[in-house]
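RESIDUES AND SHAPES:
===
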Amino acid sequence: MIEAIRQILLARVYEVALETPLTRAPKLSAATGAPVYLKREDLQPVHSFKIRGAYNRIANLSEEERSRGIIAASAGNHAQGVALGAAKLGVHATIVMPRTTPAIKVEAVLAHGAEVVLVGDSFNDAYAHACDLQKQGGATFIHPFDDPLVIAGQGTIGREILEQLPDTTHIFVPVGGGGLIAGIALYVKQLRPEVRIIGVEPADSNVMQVSLRAGKRVTLEHVGIFADGVAVKQAGEHTFEIARSCVDEVITVSTDEICAAMKAVFEDTRSIVEPAGALAAAGVMQGALSRDARVVAICSGANMSFERLQQVAERTLIGSGREVLVATAMPERPGALRTFCSDVVGDHAINEFNYRLGDRRNAHLLVGISVSSPEDRDAFFRRMDELGYEHTDLSEDDIAKEHVRHMIGGVAPAAVHEHLYQINFPERPGALGDFLATLGTQWNISAFHYRNQASDTGNVLIGFEAEDQGALESRLNETGYEWTCIDGAPSMQLFVAPRERRDSREPR
């Protein structure tokens, strides 16, 4: 531990990185009841904390190692940190990135003079190719998180926090591979062991939480794609051991909570952080804090495509508890819609209203309603109960929020033996064609919905007519893409393919 602290104190980061400000967040403070401060790593030259660890690792190379160059694999912030650090020190850098990397990130790396190699559809593909290139050419591999010198560089944030806010009581830290929280926790726990170090992960990418509970490093089979900056399937070996001894707790937040935190940070700073950069703020908003706490949340980065803002805005209201997405039914008769609006909706604002004629008995609605508080939400549902409207709360149903709200067109009466799937595609030209070529022409596609979210992975809803579902799923496995059968999802049952109707249809 003493050697680790010495490495942090001697870390060479300020030749290129900034000592970022710790700014009071008035609205977050008011919402949580405790003073909240944002550590603004989004203000670094590459808009991410990653420059600290990357530069420290490169700066400690020997002259002979520098002459052989460096290599890294990354689809985002680490790539930019390595490229800038290499340019500053005059070292040739090769960055291997997936072909799915958004152009804005590739261009940022090229602007710093690094050589970019585009390979594969995922980080794992890029990482494997980078390792092959490293063995062939002898360049030094710069790991994004599992390296003592990288960890030491990130640890300088902990030193700055204790200098800027000596009476800190809680530090919330976003967690991916664990380099950031390992560095901060190492330093802070040695000097101020009473300060609580709390890691925050997306609920669908909680590799550190799962590993700490298991007492060993665990590899996740799937990780979420929304907070792509922390979408890591396995924590680092060094970072896990440090977290096990120095981190007090790791909590998780939902996609909607991340979006709500992005809005909260924007309202306090007028800056837009990326989803991973808002994790710590989302954790602060979730927790119960005493008034005498002094809370720091790390805003770790702000590298996000502008096009993703639409998706963030759509999810923000639900994440902040200001909207409910509800499915309900009403009699299919003239005047029923007007009665629903006057008696049920009342003074609430309607954010979204989806309806199409399905059958002549009941009309099914998918409605987004503004609510002012949890109590208002509960009162709204009580009124629906009192008036006899059956309802399903879909506010936590990702399928409804990503797909169904854009597909309200009624059940397809001609579809036979229909099965519905959610599939993750790499966002690159030709990916859909490759998928369909592997799948063949044995099954008819009965439904398809996709929206570009400006990420490296697209989320697609596909329906197939397949009498032998097992054969279809065997072929899906051969595509190599992640898939989930969503036949039983509530929103599917209500709006797209109710099971009782799907199973009873006969070929025409």
Observations:
- The longest strand covers residues 323-331.
- Residues 136 and 318 are 50 Å apart (CA to CA).
- The chain has 21 helices and 18 strands.
